[in-house]
Design a protein that fits this description.
The protein is of the alpha/beta class. It contains 6 helices and 6 strands, in the order E-H-E-H-E-H-E-H-E-H-E-H. It has a single domain, classed as Rossmann fold (3-Layer(aba) Sandwich), CATH 3.40.50.1000. A 6-stranded parallel beta sheet has the order 1-6-5-2-3-4, with helices on both faces. InterPro entries: HAD-like_sf, HAD-SF_hydro_IA, HAD-SF_hydro_IIIA, HAD_sf, PGP_Pase, PGPP1/Gep4. One of its GO terms (molecular function) is phosphatidylglycerophosphatase activity. It comes from Paenibacillus contaminans.
């Protein structure tokens, strides 16, 4: 399998079929933060996201936020929601994915990764044998320099893969 291709795609996290994940044996969700759960400049969860995250937990899934962003950014978002998190994750490197699975006590075949970037979330998850789900980014205009570079590379990769 191409390491840049997600197992599932969804427009937003709200469009992810949790029943299908459960049937596939998934018990935990590692999720990116910026442009996956909220826009890159949004400091806190929206009421809609709070409701969705509550539903994910009620459905029996564990959730860990894994972000390449700073401790300040990620903790201000995750702590009010009582969601465990890993900051400065250095995705697509394996260490943060392994740590998140350890926090949940789950194996790779029980874990999904949700994110908006092929080169960090999808590549990192696929390299670990996780169930990868790619969502469309929420707010492209607020992205940082390196994310914009990743988007350019992703666009070229998608064009190449279509050929």
């Amino acid at each position: 399998m191409n390491k840049l291709v997600p197992r599932m795609q969804a427009k937003t996290v709200y469009d992810i079929d949790l029943n299908a994940l459960r049937k596939a044996g998934i018990r935990g969700v590692i999720t990116d933060l910026d442009n996956t759960l909220v826009g890159a400049k949004e400091p806190v969860a929206t009421p809609e996201l709070i409701k969705w995250l509550s539903g994910v937990r009620e459905a029996g899934f564990q959730v860990v936020i894994v972000s390449n962003n700073s401790k300040e950014r990620v903790s201000k978002f995750a702590e009010p929601l009582t969601i465990p998190f890993i900051y400065s994750a250095r995705k697509p490197m394996n260490i943060a994915f392994r740590k998140a699975m350890g926090m949940m006590g789950l194996a790779p075949n029980q874990t999904a990764v949700v994110g908006d970037q092929m080169l960090t979330d999808v590549l990192g998850g696929n390299r670990m044998g996780l169930f990868t789900i790619m969502v469309q980014p929420i707010a492209l205009k607020d992205e940082g320099f390196f994310t914009k570079i990743n988007r350019t590379i992703e666009k070229a990769a998608l064009t190449f893969m279509k050929k």
